[in-house]
Amino acid sequence: MAGSQDIFDAIVMADESRKMKVLESLIGMIQKFPYDDPTYDKLHEDLDKIRGKFKQFCSLLNVQPDFKISAEGSGLSF
């Protein structure tokens, strides 16, 4: 049965590799985002891409992001 364990290990490693690729992509998108330029013409487009990548990463982790804004001020809850 060592063969089935090898297959399982390969599946787990492929899944972890995919998670890392998505995370690295998300980090890269965030790092390249022009925070200083409110007139950036692709602002909404890039934010939508970042949001989509974040949702993809949460899905791979089987996590439901929960964003809550309280009356006292804005805040995110994960």
Give short descriptive properties of this protein.
78 residues; mainly alpha; LTO1 maturation factor of ABCE1; LTO1_adapter
How would you describe the overall organization of this protein?
The structure is a single chain. It is built from two helices and no strands. With 78 residues, the chain is mostly helical. α1 runs antiparallel to α2. The protein is elongated.
* N-C termini distance: 40 Å
Q: Domains counted in the coordinates: how many? A: 1
Which geometry do the CA atoms define? elongated
What summary fits the major beta sheet? Answer: none
| Count of distinct strands | 0
Helix share, percent: 55-70%
User: How many H/I helices?
Assistant: 2
Cα-atom radius of gyration: 18 Å
**What are the low-pLDDT stretches, counting only 5+ consecutive residues below 50?**
none
Q: What structural class do you assign from the helix and strand content? A: mainly alpha
Protein name: LTO1 maturation factor of ABCE1
Organism: Pan paniscus (Pygmy chimpanzee)
Short description:
This protein is mainly alpha-helical and 78 residues long.
Topology of helices and strands:
Blueprint: H1 2-32, H2 43-60
Helix pairs in contact: 1-2
